[in-house]
Amino acid sequence: MRIGFIGLGSQGGPMARRIIDAGEEVALWGRRPETLVRYAETGAKIVGSPAEVGAASDIVCLCVVADQDVLDVATGPDGVLSGMSNGGIIVVHSTVHPDTCQRLADTARDVGVTVVDAPVSGGGRAAETGDLLVMVGGADDDVARCLPIFEIYANPVVHLGDLGSGQTTKLLNNLLFTANLATAVDTIGLGDALGVDTARLAEVITHGTANSFALGRVASAGGTLDRIAMHAGGLLRKDVGLLEGIAGERRSHGEAVLAAAHAALQRMGSES
Q1: Cα distance between the two ends of the chain
Q2: Which InterPro entries does the entry mention (predicted)?
Q3: Mean pLDDT of 200-207
């Protein structure tokens, strides 16, 4: 298959590189020319627009930042869809609102292109080693076509259901992570108030039943959220807000986790 990739940042870059190194035929485009320099001597084809990526690809992976970025590069005047042929697939690796994927799918349908949503978790290091988690939503046949590509940079790949289900799952994951940040920092703070060495407390918990990824991040930052606030506070705030909007009146099922997530966001706001 011919693969296109747009969004060559800290996570998308290693993903694209693994596809190239696997010997696939790859077309790349970037808004910032400097992001393409590292691929100049690879086998990748560097093109001048998203439309050219679409024309050169059977599957185009988008790993851009926000909802509007996805729509701009896919449906804009010189977007992927203006060059893509009937039967193509656009994969949304970005974390966005499920409705954004549905809007894109509605537009893509007019030119015979389908959409798969496949947000990822794990960061650049996991992408480099092929250990990303990919949460997939879409039709069975489309997901089956994409699976050989996903498996180049991801393990596991989990198909959740119809289009949008991958995004909803990713947002739920990020909601719980944000909530866990609040409980982790409060527990370490309480331990300090009770006279327990915070570094030793974190060491114990990371080997016990209360361990979590969030605790590890808090412990590595000295028991505070300032480092997380600096690097991920804005994204976590966006994702919690998106999940609240999706949940609507059903938020009563998540009152505790939403309250904890907002406590973490509030603390990050005061610490950032």
Answers
A1: 45
A2: 3-OH-isobutyrate_DH-rel_CS, 6-PGluconate_DH-like_C_sf, 6PGD_dom2, 6PGDH_NADP-bd, HIBADH-like_NADP-bd, HIBADH-related, NAD(P)-bd_dom_sf
A3: 95
